Every structure is written in structure tokens, then in C-alpha cells.
Amino acid sequence: xxxxxxxxxxxxxxxxxxxxxxxxxxxxxxxxxxxxxxxxxxxxxxxxxxxxxxxxxxxxxxxxxxxxxxxxxxxxxxxxxxxxxxxxxxxxxxxxxxxxxxxxxxxxxxxxxxxxxxxxxxxxxxxxxxxxxxxxxxxxxxxxxxxxxxxxxxxxxxxxxxxxxxxxxxxxxxxxxxxxxxxxxxxxxxxxxxxxxxxxxxxxxxxxxxxxxxxxxxxxxxxxxxxxxxxxx
Length: 233
Hints:
Oligomer: single chain
Low-confidence stretches: none
Number of helices: 11
Strand content: under 5%
Shape: flat
Distance between the termini: 108 Å
Number of domains: 2
Radius of gyration: 30 Å
Mean pLDDT: 76
Structural class: mainly alpha
Largest sheet: none
Helix content: over 70%
């Protein structure tokens, strides 16, 4: 029988080792996919034997991972084609899409409790992505993240080579990054302040309506008690 391409088995071994086994040993992993002994898994990891189709399918089912990803034929680990499509369109990771889905489920449950779609998490995300304020916040966060990665890389290089000059002196762009970063923070604060002000205004209106309702109830109870007293006389 013709052997599977070495690169394919290398990918299978990499995924099993780095992503699936976790803290469990080879024996426990073998048991999790219905194998009595660890020999087969050891041989896969060492490249001594090819993995059979039934074992690939079992790993896919137990660990919720696509066979194509195991074989290195796809960059998307989820076996769910809808999630794969979302990853392809958005560029988001499987973990990010899973997180969005969890929030959607929680929002749906909240909607059934509050009977109001205004509490829906996805409505908030849509508003954030489609509003000018939201775009400023996201743009600021992206710039801040890029600045953090760059500065962290410089710091790591400096720590690995303590004899060299200050990274600020060797990397003149760092000062301009600091200016850009401060600008990003101010833009994000300004954008967030709009949301905060809208919230405070809505909160004050709600409080005023609540007070009016309480006053109306107190007035009604007072009139009812007065009529009751007159009736007793």
C-alpha cells in the first residue's frame, strides 16, 4: 500500500501533539479515540505508520475538529461549514466566532426574559461596527494593539541583548508611535464619552419617569385613604 505523503502525517502529528492532547498522555489520548493501546498513536507521532480513515473520523468526532484540518488541507479547524464560512469571510479565528456565538445564545436567553430586543448583544455589536463612534473605538484599539506588539518586540530584543543602546535611541519611530498611541487613547475616550453621555441622559429620563410614577401612586393612595375616611364618618 502506498504511504501517505510525509508532510500530511507530520501535520497530523503536529495537531495531535500541540492542539489535542493537552495535559493527557499518549495512552489517554489513544483511549479517548477507542484504541486499547498507545502503539498506533506513537507510530503516527513518530511518522512510522499512516493513520487510517476510521481513526481520522474518530478524532474529528471526539475533538470537534475537521479532517481536512488534521491533514493540513484547510486552515479552519472547525468541522462546522458555517463557522468555516464565517472565518473565511471575516478573517476571525474559530475562538472569536465561538465567543460571538456564545454571546448570541446568552442574548437570546436574555431577550426571552426581558421580552426586548434592545438588550441583544449582536444589536450592540452591529451598532458598534456601523457607527462613527464605534469605528473610532475599533480603529484606536487596533492601533494600540499594533503599538503594543511593536514595543513588546523591541523590549524583548533589548532584554536579550542588554549591552545594546536604548531601543528608543535605536528605533526613532518609537517616539512617533508614542504620540500616535496617545492620540488613539484620546480618540477612544472621546468616542466612548458619547456612549456614556447617551447612557446618562437615558438613565436620568428613566429616573424622572420612575419618580413621576411613584408620585402618582402616592397621590392615588392618599386620595383613596381620604375617601375611605370620609366614608367611615
